[in-house]
Write a structure and sequence with these properties.
Blueprint lengths: L2 H12 L3 E3 H8 L3 H18 L4 E4 L2 E4 L4 H11 L9 H14 L6 H8 L3 H16 L4 E4 L5 E4 L2 H14 L3 H17 L7 H15 L4 E3 L2 H14 L13 H15 L7 H13 L1 E3 L8 H18 L7 H19 L16 H15 L8 H14 L12 E5 L4 H14 L5 E5 L4 H4 L4 E6 L5 H4 L4 E3 L6 H18 L3 H14 L5 H12 L10 H4 L5 E4 L5 H14 L5 H14 L4 E3 L2 E4 L11 E13 L5 E10 L7 H12 L13 H9 L4
Parallel strand pairs: 8-9, 8-10, 10-11, 12-15, 14-16
Antiparallel strand pairs: 1-3, 2-3, 4-5, 6-7, 13-14, 15-16
Length: 684
Amino acid sequence: MNTYIAQIIQLLIFNNGEVTFNFLMEQLHISKRMIDYYLKQFDVWRQSVNFPQIQIEDDKVLLVCKDYEKFFNEFVENYDVENYFLSAPERQGCIVLLIGLGYEKIKIEYIVEWFKVSKNTITNDLLTIKEKLSKYGVSIESKGKSGYYLKGNEQDIRYVLMQCYHYYENSFFHKYKREHLLGHINKYGMDTTNIVTRIHDVLMEAEKQGHEDYIFLALHDLIETILLVVCRMQKAQINSIEKIPDAMVNTLALITSRFEALGITYSEAEKDYLYLILQSAKVSCYNPNDFSEEVVNLTNDIIYYFKSISQLNIFEQSEIYNMFLIHVKSMYFRTKHKIKITNFSDTAISGLYGFYCIAKKALAKVQSKYALTYDDDEVKFLSYYFASLEYANEPSTDGMGNIVIVCVAGLGSSMYLKSQCLKIFDNAFTITISDLKNLNDNMNEDTKLIVSTIHIDSSLRHGVPLKRVHPVLTDKEKQELTEWFFMNRFSLNKESEVIRDVMDIIKECTVIKDQQKLFHELNHYFNPVKETPLLHLKDIFNANSIRSLSNLENLEQFIYEAGKPLLDSSMIQKSYLDNIINVLNQHGPYCECFDGILVAHAVPENDVQSPCLSLGFIKDGFVVPRWKNKVIRAIFILGVTDTESHGNAFSELIRNLTKDNLYQQINEFEDCQLLYNRIIESHS
C-alpha cells in the first residue's frame, strides 16, 4: 500500500475522523486529484479486511468509525511493512541504516534489491547521502567490489545512525524500521523474542534497585536507541569516553548483566557509552548533588539571555528553576556526547515561533563558550520550556477535580500542554503531569479527564475519559477541550445540584430548544468565569509608532529617535530611554532578537505608563564601531511595566517577524503603514 494512504489514515485518526482536502494537500504536498486516487485505492483494500469506510462530503474527508484508536491499532498491525512505499528521504535514511548496521559491507546491487528501485535511483541517493553526512564528519566509502561502509569517528557514526532512525516519524514507517532493526540483530545471533519488552523490564528493575524516581524520556525510543547501538557495536567499538560515576556502577552492572542473558555483551567503554545514553534520556528528581558546575553555569547563562531578550522573569520560583536545570542537564549530555534519543520536532511549532527564536538566540550565545553545537530539535524542545513557563505561575484550584496530562516528549512538552489546559479550563482543575508508568499513582477518584499525546489502553484509565492531542494543541483540539469543559462544568462543579434544580423548573414551565446552550448560560451565571485581560501586539503598537530614520550620528540618537513616538505620546519618560542606553553600553546588543534587529527595553520602573512599542529603522543600516562594526537595521523600543503583562504581545511580535522572514525586510519598506500591517497581520 502507498505511503500516502497510511499518512491520510493517520491524519484522519489524529483529527477525530474529519479533515478537509485543503488540509491534506497542505500536509502531504500532493494534489486533490491524487488524494482522491489514493482514497479509492483504500476503499478497494478495506473491503477485504473489513475496515471502516472513508466518505467524501463536499470538501471534507470523513472516517466512518466509532473507535478511532482501536481501528488505528488494527490498521498498523495489519499493514504489511514489506509493501510500505518509502519516500525519498525515508529511503535515504534507511540506506544509511542498512550500511551502518548490516552484517557485512553492503553492495549497491543488494541495496537495489532491498528497496526495489532502479540502480540509477540508488546512485543518486548515495550522492545526496554523502553530501548530508559530510557535515557530521562521516563518509560512505567502498573498496573495490567489497561494498559500502561508513567511515569516521565511531561516536559521530552512531549519532548519524540515531539521526536517521529517529528523524522521519510516522507509525507505519516506525513499524518498518522496527522490524528491520530487529532483523539486523537476529543476524548477529541475538534472541529478539520480546526483546523490547525485556529491555523495558530491565530498565524498570534498575530504576527500582537504584531507588531513583526518574522518568525516561520517550522510553520506547530509548529502547530502540539501545538496540541500534547494540547492533552497531557488533561492527565497531566505541573509544574510551567519560567514565561511569561510582554511584552508577551498581545500576549499570545490573543492566549489563541482564543484557548478557539476551546475548548482548558490553566492553568497559561500551558500558560507559550506555551510561551516557541513559543520562541523555533521563529526567530525574531534583538533587543539588546531581549537577556539575558547568551544567549550573550553562543553565544560568541560558536564563540570562532569555530574560535579556524577553524581559520575562519566569524563573524566580525555585521549583521552576530546578525543573529547568534538570532539562539542561539532559540536553547537555545529549549535545556533548552526540546522542539522539528521539525526535522532538514531532509537532509543528507555528504557535511557538516567538519562544523558538528566543531559544535559538540563547543557545547561539552559549554554544561557543561551552563548545557545544545544538541541533534544531534541541532548540524546539527548549522553546516548549520557555512557552510553558510563561504560564507556570498561574494558580489552579481543586474545586472541580483533577486532570492528568501524559506526554512522552518530556517535561517541557508536558508543561507547555499543561499551560494550554490551564488557560482553556480557566484554572478550575488541579492539573497533574504524569508519565505512563506512574499514571495509576497520579489518578484519584476526582480525576475527570486524561489529556495525552499517546494512546492509553482503557484498562489503565479505570473509566476516566481520554482526549488525545498534540503537544501544541491544534485549533480543533482547543475547541473540543473547551466544549468538554462547558458541557461537563455544570455536572462537575459543587453547585451542580442548584443547576439541576433550575433546569428541572425550566423544563416544567417551557420547552427548551437548546439544552446545551442553556447549561452553558446557567453555568456562567452560577459560576462566572474570571476573565484575564490578554494584551495583543495591536494593543501596544500602532502605525504612528513607526519611523523611517536617516542621518544618524550615533547609537544613542538611534535609540532616542526610535523611542520618540512613545515619548511624544507620554507612554514613556526620557529616563526609560536613558536606562536602555546604559544597559546597551554595559552589556552590548543583549536584546538582539534577529541579525541587526534589537528589541530594546529596560528594567521595569515607574517611567512607563503601560506596555507599549515603537519602531525605528534605517534603510542602509547603522554601523556600531564598539560592537565590532555590527550593522543595526532596526530598533524596537519595548516599554514594560512588569515582567509578565507584555509577554503575549512580545511573543506575537517575534512570531510575526519570523513569518516569511519579515525581519530580513524591515528596513526595505518605504511605507510605514504597510510595514505596520505586515507586522500585525496575523492578529489584525
